[in-house]
Amino acid sequence: MSLVDRNIGNAFGDWSVEPTTDLKLFPPSRSDHFLPYQIRLPVELTDDDMAAIDYDGDGSLGATVFGPEQEKHSNQDFCVCGAIADDRGRRLSFSVVCDGVSTGAFWTQRGAQVASFSAYAVLKQMWREGMSSAERITEAHVEAFRERCAERIAAAIKADRSNLLYDVHGYPPDFAARVFLKNRDGMDVWHHSTIIVAAVAHNGGLIAFAGDGGVSLLRRSRGGEESVRSILRSTDDLAISKFVSPMVRASDIAAGVIDTTDVEHVQITTCSDGVDRTLSKADVTLEAFAGEFGDSEALAAGLEALPSRFGEFAERDNYALAIIAWPRIERPAASGAGAPEAQSGAGQGLDDAGAPSPT
Question: Where is this region: Disordered (predicted)?
Fold first, then answer.
């Protein structure tokens, strides 16, 4: 599973209003991981899904950690990445990085988790319904993804909201009970999260996002010329004007096509704003930092080391980062500063939404 989360139990399963039991633990889980007592998310993960997001199984890396001491009491970042295969074995490498927007919204940690798996589900469905056999991933595919992603995220968040409201004893973290009871009927105060989606394959790819964070696109031509383009950067303004929520629309999601014509290699690195601002202030490029790590455990260790490594430049925030590439690249078993020993165990142009053109 190309996901390491050192702070929550990584427990997800098909939804109901019962507390979490008999759920999957994403490897590489360890003895200090736990199953939190919580209402299940409106997410189903089959064995096929677990294979698609197999730990480092396709050269894709992803990790999220709580980060340094801060006002938050939970990790509101989330990421998932891996590769989706169609019935002919053609693979789409993908990543989703989400960051719960905690200001004035309930259960943003769950919002980040629900949005991540909703976006993954849409990518899987579109890839297997015909996008894999298309000569090129086009603007039409990107527009369809925006529409379907917004629809699925909104529906999943509303389902999760209904389940949480059913639990009469449940209150969101960091909110007084009276505040929650007074405002819970408003649909616009639930599950706010930023989202960054990246996907790439033999016939191209896409990048889509709502909110801030970092996206770096590295391409190497068949002639060996390498170029790096920054698609998204966080600003010093912490106000988030775009995010997913029960009210999300396709127009809230900016998106563009990745053209892989005459390209030998593509790597896309995505991260939450905490990582992006830290690296920016430390004058370290996103692709350079990402290149230090050979597996997701090493990446998690690298994220955990950001405060000690960069000192005053380190944002007091949660951290998440994902790396995908095409063609698949074989990474060393472990690399990067402070990598731990292996642990065993359980478009084009701008669209109407102001989307970037990664082409």
Answer: 334-359
